[in-house]
Design a protein that fits this description.
This protein has about 425 residues and is an alpha/beta fold. It is built from 18 helices and 9 strands. It has 3 domains: about 60 residues, no CATH class; about 220 residues, HUPs (Rossmann fold, 3-Layer(aba) Sandwich), CATH 3.40.50.620; about 60 residues, no CATH class. Helix 3 runs parallel beside helix 14, helix 6 crosses helix 18 and helix 16 packs antiparallel against helix 17.
């Protein structure tokens, strides 16, 4: 779906409702007001609505009458891995230049990963007017993220860049208040999964003024474009090796940990998806980006149709073993960061960049939120009992049991409460 410009805010998914295209945000919202989530046989409130993910059908039914369609890429002109790396850096440069020309003053949230580090290095190299911020106290983050957040603070410090540390545990609007506000869903334009549950989107609901000014840039979606996600480099793993790793249940780190990945929190091996299949190859983009672009709050350099096409058009036979290892370690990106910043500072910042799962923890609510969540789960369970949907009854009964026994809840269950409450409030 092209919001206004296919090279500035391109969104690779669009929707149809009863066979008709949904061309605007308002049309999309109105379509979602028309169905009953408890009787609809397709709808799953714990899944993403705004995008498909790797392994999903390119045309995925998200309700009985609403289809999420993946944009078919133009792969008529193949590109080698070597040439693609050159293209990707040049394309990122052009995308960032457009964003800076449009917004002048910008801000970037640093996670310590290579994507936000690339944005930091580019802004530093181009002497932009920008601030950085590091967020602590996110509901889903745990020990490893706490380590990385402390380490990440050193990046802007090394460069002499204005940085702000925002800690939800030290504000009146803490992580429990944020998630309660999200689950109640009264003040949201549209129900979506990661909207207001993780930084930087959660910053909108901090209960006070932002600690910085400037337009937010978040590199959502560039992880695949920069080839360091499993969904990217699994395409280049020789098939016999991939099958061996799966058959003997060897972890991804067996072949992939070259100094960039921190900790042991990894997804399992996915499937290797071919271009001519009916399934989507690329990992989803966080769906809050679509809503945030609509509201003018946030932008990403990834929103380019040409870049989408080029990623899909990579000639998989052009990748040798050394190039594959370089993808896994984000080596070429770290070299780019070091070169852009220059000198010892560049080497230091590049070395600091590490990957750690952004959702390594389950939410442990305070007593007030626990009581609220239990009431919501019981309400949802009753709705599915009335409609006779057995599998969904089992899911929500299990969620209640886990919360009672261990005092924790998954991100997916919180997302489901949010979506179902939004539909209850807004459904016609």
């Amino acid at each position: 779906m092209h919001l206004t410009n296919s090279e500035e805010n391109f969104w690779p998914w669009h929707w149809t409702h009863e066979g008709k295209d949904l061309n605007t945000m308002d049309e999309h919202i109105e379509a979602f007001k028309t169905f009953n989530p408890y009787t609809d046989q397709t709808y799953n409130p714990t899944l993403y609505l705004m995008c498909n993910s790797d392994g999903h059908l390119k045309k995925r039914a998200i309700t009985d009458k609403i289809i999420c369609n993946t944009e078919e890429p133009d792969i008529s002109e193949k590109i080698s891995v070597r040439d693609y790396k050159v293209y990707a850096v040049e394309k990122f440069d052009k995308q960032m230049e457009k964003l800076l020309n449009k917004h002048k003053k910008v801000a970037i949230g640093l996670s310590g990963g290579i994507d936000s580090t690339m944005v930091l290095a580019w802004l530093y190299k181009n002497k932009a007017d920008f601030d950085t911020f590091v967020v602590k106290g996110d509901s889903w983050r745990g020990y490893m993220n706490d380590v990385m957040e402390s380490r990440t603070v050193e990046m802007p410090k090394t460069l002499g860049v204005r940085n702000h540390v925002f800690n939800f545990n030290e504000t009146s609007y803490n992580t429990h208040s944020l998630l309660k506000h999200y689950m109640v869903a009264e003040q949201f334009e549209f129900p979506c999964i990661s909207y207001a549950t993780q930084p930087p989107s959660s910053m909108r609901y901090s209960g006070g003024e932002m600690p910085f000014d400037g337009h937010l840039i978040a590199p959502i979606g560039v992880d695949d474009f920069f080839l360091h996600r499993v969904t990217s480099w699994i395409r280049f793993v020789p098939k016999p090796l991939l099958e061996t790793m799966k058959r003997f249940q060897q972890p991804i780190e067996m072949i992939a940990n070259y100094g960039y990945k921190v900790g042991v929190f990894s997804p399992g091996w996915g499937e290797r998806i071919e271009q001519d299949s009916e399934k989507q190859m690329m990992h989803r983009w966080d769906d809050d980006l679509w809503v945030q672009m609509y509201g003018g709050f946030l932008s990403s350099p990834a929103t380019s149709q040409d870049w989408w096409n080029k990623w899909h058009a990579i000639d998989e036979s052009s990748c040798n073993q050394e190039q594959l290892k370089d993808m896994m370690s984000a080596g070429w990106l770290k070299s780019t960061v070091a070169n852009w910043i220059g000198g010892q500072k560049g080497d230091s910042v590049a070395y600091m960049s590490k990957s750690v799962s952004c959702a390594e923890n389950y939410y442990q609510p305070d007593e007030s939120n626990k009581e609220y969540i239990l009431s919501q789960c019981k309400k949802i369970l009753a709705g599915y009992k009335e409609s006779g949907q057995t599998r969904k009854q089992i899911y929500w009964k299990g969620t209640i049991d886990v919360l009672n026994a261990w005092g924790k809840i998954s991100p997916e269950a919180v997302y489901g409460i949010h979506q179902l409450n939004w539909l209850e409030i807004n459904r016609k």
